[in-house]
Amino acid sequence: MKRFGFEFEGKTWHLVKLDQDKKDDVCDFMTAGRFRTCDRIARKGYRKPAEVEQDRQVAFVKWGSKAFLSDLHDEENAKKFLRALLEEEMDDATLTRLVISQKDEDSDLRLALARMAEDADPKAQTPPPSVPTPTGGVAYSDLIPSS
Questions:
Q1: H or E element that contains 96
Q2: Which of 66, 70, 77, 93 has its CA 20 to 30 A from that of 60?
């Protein structure tokens, strides 16, 4: 299994290769949080039943979407994201400090996340000039939460 090491608080930790199951787990966690919010708002009567149903339809979080990137700024979502990627077990207090530390663009964790993301989707070899190269998707720097 491929691993991506980084130093944090005097210990070496490892991120594991990102796979579809890990992506789904994180997105499901985020979507569940949105559903809880929809239900809470509905119980308070702030939204009509038809509006609540519409809210639930758009609550699904897709990997790499703007909603996903926005939701990564929430500490619990960021912790779930990192916990899904960590090979070793990490207690909640340390994980909270890790989430805070990763906001530093030069942190070892950020570099490991960048290596992991690059490995998950390496840049294609440069084609001959006459062949157009389609591009698309989300930039890996956008998958790494900041601020």
A1: helix 92-101
A2: 93
